[in-house]
Amino acid sequence: MILLDSERDAISARISEACPPEIQKVLTAAWAHDVATVKKLLDTPEAARGQDPLTGETPLHAAIRSCGPPSEDDDEADLAAARETVQELLLWGGIWNDVDDRNETPGCVAHRLGRTELYNLCVDAGVRAEMLFGVLEGYEELESDDEEEDEEDAHQEAGESEMVVVGEDGEEAPELINVPTNGAAEEASQGFVPPQDNAVDVNSEQYLRSKLTYSDGKLVDDEGNGVMMAWETDIMRQSVDALLPSKEPGKRILNIGFGMGIIDTMFAETKPAKHHIVEAHPGVLEHISSPDSKFGPSWEASAPEPGAYKIHQGKWQEVCVKLLQEGNVYDAIYFDTFGEDYSQLRMFFTELIPGLLDSNGIFGFFNGLGADRMICYDVYTKVSELHLADAGLDVEWKVIDVDMSRLAEEGQGEWEGVRRRYWTLDKYRLPICTFLG
Ligand SMILES: C[S@@+](CC[C@H](N)C(=O)[O-])C[C@H]1O[C@@H](n2cnc3c(N)ncnc32)[C@H](O)[C@@H]1O
């Protein structure tokens, strides 16, 4: 039997008989937007974080889901109570990014139902948690060497599920959703186990050791993760247009991450005065040096000045410090790596952009941050905006359409042979960053 959304979202389908009474009480009060009872029951963060062991329903899910989609029958007093309930739960440590058995966070439910105000409360909570996590992570690093435990603590303290950094072409894209590796929901006594997806934890070291395959419009690593894919060509085109708005030749360009050379081919066509490319992966470097590559020795030799067109081999973390020390300055800088987490992108724009970018220059990056889920994309748009401002940069987001016709289904169309559908959204926010003031 296929359940309609309204049946699937019914209280009977969401709060199961297996739910321990103390969790059930909070879930029921949250579902009813009974603010007084919710306040009485919330005396520890655990109370706000309880989950039905079978459905994964949290009090935040319940408070949002019970609103249903907007309708003529909406009762303003109930909606105000729903907002207050959600705020109270968040205040008491309710987790903005816990997923239920359908892989939905409370914010995903709000988005699906069209409850914008409640969705925005979830986004704001995510931004606060991520900003706090950024601070706690730095603080914990100073305190101890036990990184894994510290990171878990920092996430808990920040009021979110532990982060799993997932390899995808979002490169530094954070995976804000906790996806454990121990299978589907089992016994009620074990608590709720969120549904498994095929996310893998890719880190930079592992990635840089992996064997890469260039084939048929994509570059994949030996786990089948999409490092770069041809469907991103339009994003690269529009990024070049944003970084070089005057289209004049003679610009100084720095690109971090060669991949399939899509953006570098476009940059090269503008006849720059300087074109530096930083690439760390031995497989990509081998591809670049192959006889039919456009970026081999004859490209380097065609530069207006010796050294002006150059592939800099190595990790940007080391190469860019050298470029900085040598006094290189660029009119346009693009950043698009793979297998690195958001802290690296943040470090790039905080520590390197101020020295490498001309005062009238433009900086851009591939914005795949959290792009496998609308709420994570929205959270990371705000988080990166705040961190960019911290680094003295203003960001304008140019919204562009993404043709989803061949991107809509996992394993199908463009995703055939790719382990994970890292992009799920029909709009891309293209960042155009310039110095403030
Ligand atoms: C997504 S691809 C870049 C795609 C490129 N924008 C294009 O248009 O084809 C990411 C590239 O960054 C490289 N990379 C990853 N980590 C790096 C690092 N720390 N330093 C330099 N390059 C890195 C990868 O090897 C890969 O070639």
UniProtKB/TrEMBL annotation:
One of its GO terms (biological process) is methylation. SUPFAM superfamilies: Ankyrin repeat, S-adenosyl-L-methionine-dependent methyltransferases. It is found in: Cytoplasm; Nucleus. Keywords: Cytoplasm, Methyltransferase, Nucleus, S-adenosyl-L-methionine, Transferase. Residues 141-154 have a biased composition (Acidic residues). GO terms for molecular function: protein arginine N5-methyltransferase activity. Its EC number is 2.1.1.-. Residues 198-437 form the RMT2 domain. Residues 47-75, 141-160 are annotated as: Disordered. Monomer. Belongs to the class I-like SAM-binding methyltransferase superfamily. RMT2 methyltransferase family. S-adenosyl-L-methionine-dependent protein-arginine N-methyltransferase that methylates the delta-nitrogen atom of arginine residues to form N5-methylarginine (type IV) in target proteins. Monomethylates ribosomal protein L12. PANTHER family: GUANIDINOACETATE N-METHYLTRANSFERASE (PTHR32379:SF1). This is Arginine N-methyltransferase 2. It comes from Podospora bellae-mahoneyi.
